[in-house]
Every structure is written in C-alpha cells, then in structure tokens.
Design goal:
11 helices, TIM Barrel, twelve-stranded mixed beta sheet, globular, alpha/beta, 12 strands
Length: 331
Amino acid sequence: MIQDRIGRPLTALRVSVIDRCNLRCTYCMPADVFNKNYTYLKSNEILTFDEIQQVVQSAMQVGVRKIRLTGGEPLLRPNLSELVKKIKSVGIDEIALTTNGLLLDEHAETLYDAGLDRVTISLDTLSPSIFQKMSGTSVSIQKVFSGIRAAQKTGFLSIKVNAVIQRGMNDGEILPLAHFARTEGIHLRFIEFMDVGHTNQWSKDQVVSGREILEVLKSRWDLVPIPPKKNHVAQDWIYEDGLGKVGFINSVSEAFCGGCDRGRLTADGIFYTCLFSAKGHDLKRALRESYDADLLTQILKSQWSEREDRYSELRADKNEQPRMEMSRIGG
C-alpha cells in the first residue's frame, strides 16, 4: 500500500462516468452556466467501461479496495450495470453509487443484481417547491422518493441520503429530513456547502456548519457521538432512542484532509488526488496509445506518493488556486 507525503494511503477511488446531469442544482451545475451552450465531453473523450476496469485493476495494485461511481449523474450513462459487473469481476471489495435518484426506480434492481453494494441519494429537502428551486428544474421530487423506495426493496448493504444545507435556502429542512431518515431507516448525512469549482457562487455566509445542524437536531432528539473510524470523513452520531444515526461532513468548518484516502478519476480519464485539485494526470495516453498495465500502476503510484494536498485546511489562508467543477471531478 502506498502513502502520500503526509502518510495518507490510497484506499478508495471515485470514478465519474459522465459529466452530464438531469438536474441543475445551484451548488453544483447552475442552469445559467450549464445551459444549452455549455460544451460537454464528446463520447470519444469519455473512458469506456473496459478502460475504467483497467484503471481499477491498476488502482487495486496500489491499495484501492473501494470504488464509488459518480457523475454528473451516473445513471445517465447507458448500461451502467455492465460497468458494475466489470469492476466486481476484478475482485474489488466494495462498489457504491452516488445518484440524484431520479432514475434509480428503473435501475436499482439491475444494479443490485450486477453487484452494487451501496447507494447514496442526494436529497436536500422534502419540500417540492424548494426541491425545484434548488435543482433548477420542474422535475417532481416524487421521482426521488420512488428511487429511494426502489433501493429499499433490494439488498443493498446501506442506503444513505446526502443533504447539502445552504443558509437562506433549505436550512429549515434539517428536522424534516432527519425525521424522514429516522422513519425510513436511512443513514442521513449533512454536508456543508463547499467551494468546489467556480460556478456555484459560493459564499461562506451561506455555509451552515455541522455544529449548527447538530444543535438543531439536539433540540429535538438526544444524540450520542460514535468514535471516529480511521480515514472516515463523516462524524457520525446515533440517536439515543435507537432510531438510526446521522452523519456530518464538515469540510469547511472542520477540515479533515489528514484522513482523506481517496483519489478521483474524471469521465475523460484525468486522475486527481483531491476534490479541490487544480491539476490532474491524464491516464488516457497510458490506456489508449499502447496499454501497459504496469505503466498505469506506476503512474498512479507516482501521482499519489507525491501528493501533499490540504486544500480544506488552507482555505482559511485565502487559497485562490483554480479548481475543477464538481460535475467533472465527481463529488
């Protein structure tokens, strides 16, 4: 297992399979930027399933045991279950998926049968009107609920819901979301609004900290902290009455760079060592010009061993380096 310059291992890889999405969430792909004139990746620029499988095989050689498929919206990629099968066939320990849930109703069973272990659904509100405002579309929130129900009918090891809370937008949804998750037996995680990319008009004034959210929850329920796991970015708490647990991903107010063990692969084959990376390494040459598994493994090893990313810890120092958009690098 390799380590970076700060001693962090590479054990997880997030794989973006597409840069397109069927929502226009204000904090990720705002409609005024990602409109009909926006230039997306061409089909021949996107890694094939075989190429992704090859990257996964090399990543396993340097310590990766977990894969998470992201986007854009990964379920817009045709036949995604075939990719799950390919990744599962090489012996990876765990495959997870992050989705907005709109297409999960029709794909949950097929994905489970293909070997998908876990699924995370993005849901920032229970309010139909707030959902449409935040998602920048007229899509019904009921489609997300249908996706969650479909996932619950399978045998996934876990179903999680991620909620990004923005002050003045959906900060009144904290208790309703928590009640929903408790009732449905779902692990809810609150995520601080992050400054990924440059198009989401991020302002620290809009950040509702995990500590604030926790205090709101404590006004209704008694919670007990769970001792943190190594390289686990979420701070988890259990409800004292036994009805589930809730997590907090506080990357703005409480940076967790020291425990980050995940690399990121964009849909067009760029390997990044941090969500906030300014530069990555293009793996397509090693994949397409003359595929060499050993060379690909060596590239990943070299890129990670030179890593010293600490963006979230340096944010307070007014780090203004350019950053990739969330829809490209995969959240």
